[in-house]
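Issue 218. Parser rejects a valid record. Input:
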Amino acid sequence: MNNAALLLSQTPVRRILIIKLRHHGDMLLTTPVINTLHDHYPQAEIDVLLYQETRDMLAAHPFIHAIVSIDRQWKKLGARRHMLKEAGLIRQIRARRYDLVINLADQWRSAVIARLSGAPLRVGFDFPKRRHPLWRACHNVLASTEGHRTMHTVEQNLSILAPLAIAPLNTQVTMGYTPEDAATVGRLLAEQQVGERYIVVQPTSRWFFKCWSEEKMAETLRALQADGHRIVLTSGPDAKEQKMVAQILALCPAPGIVSLSGRLTLPQLAALIDRAMLFIGVDSVPMHMAAALGTPCIALFGPSKLTFWRPWQAKGKVIWAGDYGTLPDPDAIDTRTDERYLNLIPTDVVIHTARELL
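Output the parser choked on:
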């Protein structure tokens, strides 16, 4: 038994804090760590520290005791009020008297919070870019990142538990929603006269270089409409995403297609996807939600790092634009570009795949 595992075996684990300060999809892919820790310490209270705007991703997770959030708008309050908010956060964390802190983040802020938590066991990653005495001082256990370049993000996250000798690992991603979320979705579908059999299509991402053109998406949807399928379009509330959905709707015949674009919270979107026959979407949070919920899905990928971000344990198929032409290196992409790299994907491939899955 290594020193970390020995220390853990000698420490009653009553409260655990998991830190991850990233985007929505990153938060969803932390849930196997939460599930594994719950499996091994079913009586422990597991809290998560995250950015406030990502709270919905984990709000209905059954094994989370409390969510502690950082509002990135604090920095707009002025230096004094900002510092008061940060100090209040540290007091809140210290008051919980955590036995174990798992820091999945790579920011200095997360490391300092781990150190100030007062937890006797603080585990972080040995990131090459954080080979600094202060990073080590903030953690008393560092997990190796060797091999991360060939691992999915779920596997990377779970590897932080290796020094603790926790096994077996629970690799299931969990996307939760409440009965109230399901009821709201049921009412919206009834209003739109959508029955129990429908396809959810999320054509948008906050980064448009991850999107297919409106014309190609509309051609695919028209083919599925002609097959007699009902289609529900979704997107985020951003004006650019709303405009894209409106353009797709304008290119499709009205019968058989409705839009709930910008009208759903993330848990409500989960309830909608969970009931669907099929999900079609681009590399975005809803795609990861569909995979987690076990809904058959078609994931359209462009110049993204497939190894890290392909839908985890998904039912369905990933269609990669790189199989139909040359894509730029993901690290060289200007995320502000309007270039539609997914346009390399032929519509007939997506239509054929959808018909196979339906």
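Fixed in the parser; the record now loads. The chain has a mean pLDDT of 94.
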